[in-house]
Amino acid sequence: MTHALDAATASRFASAALGHVTREYPNKMDHVLSGPEDVQGPRALHPIFFGSFDWHSCVHGWWTLFTLARLYPDMPEAAAIRALADELFTPENVAVETAYLDQPGSRGFERPYGWAWLLMLAAELERHESPHAETLRPLSQAFAQRFREFLPLAGYPVRVGTHYNTAFALRLTLDYTERTGDDALSALCLDRARVWHSGDRDCQAWEPSQDEFLSPALMEAVLMRRTMGPDAFADWFDAFLPRLSQRQPATLFQPASVSDRSDGKIAHLDGLNLSRAWCWREIASALPSDDPRRPIALQAAEDHLDAALPHVTGDYMGEHWLASFALLALLANPAP
Q: Which residue range is the domain that position 249 belongs to?
């Protein structure tokens, strides 16, 4: 069975996201207190992205909602999505979100994961015939500028499988630059990817760690697929995972086991399975149709989806964010 997005799944994901993007508490804030005046609650600081347990999850919760509403405009939740977006995505609220970045302690706010997801949301809004893309533009441009300033300073990649992973951030940002025509930022992303990873060989894949939701190995491969032409990527990929046809490193083919979905960090492993499925599908799409590694990659994707899709909803520690990663995987289904 090949997993694909359908109307029922879209409705389930949308209902879950609607249930958490305006749920203010519990909330894990990325907030530096420079003085007593900075002691404020999530909604006061972030009048759009105050829900979903943390700022970045709220951002990609909205990406999920807007994407599903575009794909299924007649879904039962579509009207509620549009109404809530009209209520929250206002110039006044965007101005508050943008001004937050000017605070003295906000230089590293949500870097790079939240930055990339905000740009991914902006790219999705560009696909809609609505004013929300223009309304959000001051915030998206502020984060694009942050990337322009940060990437020349970033001499080294961050290869962990959590929010600090730089390959994931660049991969999402390239979607934004392609959609918006931001050639300057695209060039920076491509340069950093090549500097960081073009010489990587024989990946050992020491993963997963206990709280990872990204595969450092596969995420790097997915990024490099976006930075190279087909022939150059084929050469690089052959050297990076030279024993893939033997299903090695074996850990990349084995879905992670999740021992406690009520523990927010352990629940990350459901996200690892979903993001690996996304990566395997993207890798398969880069391989020739007659490449024997292609069915191996596609089967690995299905195995990981089998392990994770039943758990996208059910416990808030996963439910507040997992649908976004499930959607990435399901939308990446390559043509036969």
A: 200-326
